[in-house]
Amino acid sequence: MKKQPAVLLILLAFVLVVGTLVYLKYSSRQDKVIFNPQTTGSPVSKLKMYKSLELDFSTQLPTSYIVDVKFTHLDLKNTTGSIGVDRNAHTFASLKEYLADVDDRDQLPSVNIIKEFLVNKHQVVVRDELRGGVKVRMYYIFTNDWVYVFSTESESLYSDLDQIAQSFQYTPN
Q1: Cα separations in angstroms, 43 against 38, 101, 129
Q2: Which pLDDT does position 121 carry in this prediction?
Q3: Looking at the record's lineage, which domain of life comes first (predicted)?
Q4: Band of the pLDDT at 40, cuts 50, 70, 90?
């Protein structure tokens, strides 16, 4: 009878070790990037196609960026900063309703709408928001089931953020 608790403890320790190893392997891995250099307006700017299987989208990134995947969040990093990408589920009929809910919930002290347009038939709103005393440029992209949020605190990355968000393609599996 005394062996049963010992066996249970060993089994529990084994499950804990395996769970920790799985978490460490997948929590902060580099996602695969499809390299497809292309030139845009400037011959100096090369792009690579990036497809996120976890978040169901693709976009074009400047070749200087690496992608750090953290479950439902991506960090697009280069030597001068990073652009965050998040995907949020929603039940709203429009992006305007979604943003009204965000504004009501987060009580942001300052929101400045920069522009509104469509990317591949998806509603997009670009805003500057004051979050925790820091100005953040936010791209909200509305799909049927998700709102994708591309953001950066670095003004020097605004043109990269524009290019990355405006080449967004929703790719549900």
Answers
A1: 9, 42, 33
A2: 94
A3: Bacteria
A4: very low
